[in-house]
Amino acid sequence: MNFIRALNSVWRENNTLLCIGLDPDPAKFPAHLQHRPDAIFEFCRAIVDATADLVCCFKPQIAYFAARRAEDQLEALIEHIHIRHPATPVILDAKRGDIGSTAEQYAIEAFERFQADAVTINPYMGRDSIEPYLAYRDKGIILLCRTSNPGGSDLQFLDVGGEKLYERVARLVSKEWDVNGQCALVVGATFPSEIARVRTLIGDMPLLVPGIGAQGGDIETTVRAGCTPSGVGLIINSSRAILYAGKGEDYANTARSVAEATRNAINFHR
Ligand SMILES: O=c1ccn([C@@H]2O[C@H](COP(=O)(O)O)[C@@H](O)[C@H]2O)c(=O)[nH]1
């Protein structure tokens, strides 16, 4: 099944727009996991199994695995999600961007090595840097548009011929690059008026929205700005606020409680 069809199905079946970001930082793990060689896998696996019915996607961030030479644990984690929670798409947050020949290798990495359903991409190098990902016709390509960090405005707010750079990205992706109908855009919850602006430019294309939870984005304004008329269209990510809510052996249950409250708060405003 392609990414967008899987997303539509899980939005409906699980009645949720929440995505849990898997950003495993061993320094924040509970004591009982600290010295296990597979601690990164085990930490994330327990969170995944405790929350799968509450989410529309899981989003592992590759840097947290690569920084600790734990790419094998990322492979094992994505395989685990596909086997145990086959309806839940996995977004590999890698923010890749390079010339076509190198992008081909990044696409192999994301879709063949890691078996991700979708990958985040930096659009800054233009259309030919996206082509290798488009060759995987069923896979999701999620392009940075209006990022959640304060410095995002340095470039994304520049005027480019009468529109802002992030608006140009939204227009280009939705009108020209999305040849397989599998593209989505990243717009931060920290900038709700830009979420609304992007929504007017792209129709029903999904938005991956990081920035609630630890970054302080507001759930109500995010949902009101970004939902499509049928109450979907958003993949609202929270990572640290859920992963590290609990400090003890029952951390996965604590994560579930916070995830459930977040899912409910999102649904309240849909
Ligand atoms: O604009 C962006 C794009 C990606 N991210 C990523 O999302 C999560 C956010 O984590 P929190 O702990 O919920 O703040 C993280 O993996 C970022 O790399 C983003 O924050 N903003």
In words, what does this structure look like?
This protein has 270 residues and is an alpha/beta fold. It has one domain: Aldolase class I (TIM Barrel, Alpha-Beta Barrel). Helix content is 44%, strand content 14%. The protein has helices at residues 3-14, 39-51, 62-66, 71-84, 100-113, 131-134, 153-156, 165-177, 192-202, 219-226, 240-243, 251-268, and strands spanning 18-22, 57-60, 91-96, 118-121, 140-146, 183-187, 207-209, 234-238. It has an eight-stranded parallel beta sheet with strand order 2-1-8-7-6-5-4-3. Strand 4, helix 6 (131-134) and strand 5 (140-146) form a beta-alpha-beta unit. It is globular, with a radius of gyration of 18 Å. The two termini are 26 Å apart. The mean pLDDT is 98. The structure holds the ligand O=c1ccn([C@@H]2O[C@H](COP(=O)(O)O)[C@@H](O)[C@H]2O)c(=O)[nH]1. The ligand O=c1ccn([C@@H]2O[C@H](COP(=O)(O)O)[C@@H](O)[C@H]2O)c(=O)[nH]1 binds next to strand 8. Pathway: Pyrimidine metabolism; UMP biosynthesis via de novo pathway; UMP from orotate: step 2/2. GO terms for molecular function: orotidine-5'-phosphate decarboxylase activity. It catalyses: orotidine 5'-phosphate + H(+) = UMP + CO2.
